[in-house]
Design a protein that fits this description.
Order of helices and strands: EEEHEHEHEEHHEHEHEHEHEHEHHEHE
Structural class: alpha/beta
Shape: globular
CATH class of the largest domain: Alpha Beta
Distance between the termini: 20 Å
CATH superfamily of the largest domain: Medium-chain alcohol dehydrogenases, catalytic domain
Bound molecules: zinc ion
CATH architecture of the largest domain: Alpha-Beta Complex
Radius of gyration: 20 Å
Number of helices: 13
Helix content: 25-40%
Strand content: 15-25%
């Protein structure tokens, strides 16, 4: 085995380069992963474009999947995995000691575990450098959270663990979706489709998924996955169209649309009395929505925001993928090699983004 890793390093907005980094020594409580793949999402696009307050260099890639090639005894006992196992890596490193961590909540407040303590956001200059999933190897720090994934799955299907975690987190963990619940999912992107699968797994229905005219392929996939209605809402009147399609107001609305704040107003307009809205898509810094306060009060609406995902959601997401009850291989539509990382991220920036994109080592 070579003792060097190859990693994509982002040195400035829209600037990737490939670098060789030495493989680290592994001690008692850490491990080294040979990466198989790393899922890509809208966050990678924002980082690539150089969103506000980004500092460089970083090794991008926050949805890593791979095989453990070296592991210390302590880490092996803590994570219940061994050399050769395939694992999915949670994007955040947590101290495990602060009040938030001890309460089992997400959003570690320890200063050294700030924004940069996320895989895909750390500098390669912080030893041992292998902090991102766009690379041949990933360093599993003692503070990492990893879960085993079956080797029976294709690399593509397994690489959906992060997007599925979001769907599970938003629909089940936060939305409390359950059998027979009427649901509206705003946005048919990878996260919208993952949310749909989580809702179907919980037995919810009827379910409507909204999109735009350009989302034809994604809306067709939503129907295949079991959406009762898919709506092209390019023309507006989103709330009316959703309520008509469902035959009643949705008890749960999950807004997965990035960028647009109109969807927040739509969600409040369509949600049922005492319904729940999960605001899952980031709208961008400084974006604010006019809030119809009286409507929220009159309908006694609960609105929940979310960041990251619970480890329990990641566990259930992996179980859903391992069930192979949905066409995950086709959902994992596009694979790009490490050398084509820029092309991979740019594929999400066009008008016809793939169902899902990933970096696959050796693709
Ligand atoms: Zn992501
Ligand atoms: Zn903490």
């Amino acid at each position: 085995m070579t003792d060097m890793a190859t990693a994509v390093v982002q040195t400035a907005p829209e600037t990737y380069e490939l670098r060789e980094l030495p493989l680290p020594e592994i001690g008692f409580d850490d491990a080294l992963l040979e990466l198989e793949a790393c899922g890509i999402c809208g966050t990678d696009v924002e980082v690539f474009e150089g969103g506000p307050n980004r500092s460089y260099p970083i090794v991008p890639g926050h949805e890593p999947l791979g095989r453990i090639i070296r592991i210390g005894d302590g880490a092996s006992a803590k994570w219940a995995v061994k050399e050769g196992d395939r694992v999915a890596v949670h994007s955040t490193l947590t101290c495990g000691r602060c009040r938030t961590c001890r309460a089992g909540l997400r959003g570690c407040t320890a200063p050294e575990f700030s924004d940069s303590a996320i895989y895909g956001f750390r500098s390669p200059d912080v030893s041992p450098g292998l902090w991102g999933g766009f690379a041949t190897h990933l360093y599993l720090a003692p503070e990492a959270m990893v879960l085993p994934v079956s080797l029976d799955l294709s690399v593509g299907a397994a690489s959906l663990f992060n997007v599925m975690s979001n769907g599970v987190d938003w629909a089940i963990e936060l939305g409390g979706v359950r059998a027979g619940m009427s649901v509206a999912i705003l946005g048919p992107g990878p996260r919208g489709l993952a949310t749909l699968i989580a809702c179907k797994a919980a037995g919810a229905g009827p379910i409507a998924v909204t999109g735009l005219t350009r989302d034809g392929e994604r809306l067709a996939m939503a129907r295949e996955l079991g959406a009762d209605a898919t709506l092209d809402v390019s023309g507006g009147n989103v709330a009316g169209a959703v309520v008509d399609a469902l035959g009643r107001a949705p008890q749960l609305v999950i807004d997965t649309t990035p960028g647009s704040v109109d969807s927040v107003v739509d969600a409040i307009a369509m949600v049922a009395q005492k319904g729940m809205i999960v605001l899952a898509g980031l709208k961008g810094p400084g974006r604010t929505a006019p809030v119809p306060v009286d409507q929220i009060a009159a309908k006694q609406v609960t609105i929940r925001g979310v960041v990251s995902r619970a480890l329990s959601s990641m566990q259930y997401a992996i179980e859903l993928i391992e069930s192979q009850r949905w066409p995950f291989d086709r959902l994992a539509s596009d694979a790009f090699g490490l050398a084509d990382a820029e092309q991979a991220v740019r594929s999400l920036m066009g008008d016809h983004p793939p169902l899902h994109a990933r970096i696959e080592i050796g693709a």
